[in-house]
C-alpha cells in the first residue's frame, strides 16, 4: 500500500515538474446576444444578460452590437441569442426560459 501511494505521489510530482496536465480540458460554452441601439427590445436584452450572467458563471456571455460588427448569416433580427453558434432565441426569452436552456 505504501509503495502504491508513494508511486502515485512521484508520478504527480513528475507531471507537475514537466508542466503537464492530464485532466480533460473543458471548453466554456459561449452565448452571444446580438443587439442594436435602435432596437427597443434590446434594452430588455441588456437587463436579462445583467441578471443571468452571475447565475451561470461557467458560460461566457457577450453582448454584440450589430452596428459595430458584421452580421452572422444566422442573425437576421435583433435581439438574437446564439449559443455555441446555434440560434436559440429570436427576440427575448423570459429569464426562466434562458436559465433553463443554459442549465442554470
Q: What is the topological layout?
A:
Elements: H1 2-17, E1 30-35, H2 42-52, E2 60-65, E3 80-83, E4 86-90, H3 95-102
Parallel strand pairs: 1-2
Antiparallel strand pairs: 1-3, 3-4
Name the shape in a single word.
globular
Distance between the termini: 42 Å
Number of domains: 1
Helix content: 25-40%
The major pleated sheet works out as: 4 strands, mixed
CATH level 3 topology? Glutaredoxin
Q: Low-confidence segments, ≥5 residues, pLDDT <50?
A: 1-12
Order of helices and strands: HEHEEEH
- Which strand-content bin applies to the residues? 15-25%
Task: Provide the gyration radius in Å.
Answer: 21 Å
CATH superfamily: Glutaredoxin
Structural class: alpha+beta
Strand order of the biggest β-sheet? 2-1-3-4
Q: Briefly, what CATH class?
A: Alpha Beta
In short, what is this structure?
The protein is α+β, with helices and mostly antiparallel strands. The protein has three helices and four strands, in the order αβαβββα. Residues 1-12 have low confidence and may be disordered.
Describe the structure.
- The chain contains 3 helices and 4 strands; from the N terminus they run αβαβββα.
- It has 104 residues and is of the alpha+beta class.
- It has a single domain, classed as Glutaredoxin.
- A 4-stranded mixed beta sheet has the order 2-1-3-4, covered by helices on one side.
- The chain starts with a helix and ends with a helix.
List keywords for this structure.
Glutaredoxin, alpha+beta, globular, 20% strand, 104 residues
